[in-house]
Amino acid sequence: MLTKEQIREKAAALHIDAIGFASRDRFEALPPERSPLYIFPDAASVILIGRRILRGTLRGAEEKTTLSPYGSFGRWMLDDQFVSAACYDLVRFIEDDGYEACPIFPNPAAINNMGVPVEPGLPAPNVAPDFDYAAVACGLGEIGQNGTVLTPGFGHRLRFQMIITDLPLESDPLYAGEPLCDGCGKCAEACPLHALDLSRTQTREICGRVYKTGTFDDSLCRACSAGGGPNRLHPKGEPDRLGAACTRACAACLAARGIGRG
């Protein structure tokens, strides 16, 4: 039977920058329309992989001279080609050992309920797993006050894809290092549109961890000209903020503390 170490070694060979594992029990609290277990009911484990958004792709946005490097190498091609190819090859590696593995693209929650349930008790298509939840459940990091997944190796600079498999794998420990978000508020200060309100907090619990985040005005984020913009996959999807001024400010604060320099 494949081990986590063998999968990690294969992931490293595929230039996957982050990988985490969680057994199915960590996802049983999710609502059906956001749960990977409703895509693959026989699943034993979930694997989350990530490849980095290169620091250099954000330079043009930081200098206010071009968004093209981030758009190509930090968003579209990174999602559609680089991470997808690595996810495909890792799925092949698992299936070559006799297990079934289902690759999942990070579609937005806006694609939920675009059909009708095939039978009572099942969610309507499409099920879109919660990738932020999965990042915490797989031990890769935490949720910052700006609602972004933060990791010790790369800060917010990761794009993720998921593998659901019937290969039994032990869960990785939840992140237990120093808090990645120190509540500095620089993310909100950096937003030129004042789209993030840290005084209006929301709370979510993931695997016993509680995270408080601010509230975004998504209509403003979709109009962002400072590196953000609308969700490219669905007009009602969560805006892309990974290259925006708010997350770049977060990255700078993390880097000053020695976090996310990879």
Describe the 3D structure.
The structure is a single chain. This protein has 262 residues and is α+β, with helices and mostly antiparallel strands. It is 27% helix and 19% strand. The protein has seven helices and eight strands. It has helices at residues 4-13, 59-63, 68-95, 131-137, 186-190, 218-221, 245-256; strands at residues 18-23, 45-52, 101-104, 142-143, 149-150, 158-165, 196-206, 209-216. The strands form three sheets. Strands 1-2-6-3 form a four-stranded antiparallel beta sheet, sandwiched between helices. A hairpin with a 2-residue loop joins strand 7 (196-206) and strand 8. The mean pLDDT is 96.
Write a short abstract of this structure:
27% of the residues lie in helices and 19% in strands. The chain is built from 7 helices and 8 strands. It starts with a helix and ends in a 6-residue tail after the last helix.
Number of E strands: 8
**Spatial order of the strands in the main sheet?**
1-2-6-3
Low-confidence stretches: none
Average of pLDDT: 96
- The percentage helix is 25-40%
Structural class: alpha+beta
Strand content: 15-25%
Major β-sheet profile? 4 strands, antiparallel
Distance between the termini: 32 Å
Cα Rg? 18 Å
Order of helices and strands: HEEHHEHEEEHEEHH
**Tally of contiguous helical segments:** 7
- Global morphology: globular
Can you lay out the helices and strands and say which pair or pack?
Blueprint: H1 4-13, E1 18-23, E2 45-52, H2 59-63, H3 68-95, E3 101-104, H4 131-137, E4 142-143, E5 149-150, E6 158-165, H5 186-190, E7 196-206, E8 209-216, H6 218-221, H7 245-256
Antiparallel strand pairs: 1-2, 2-6, 3-6, 4-5, 7-8
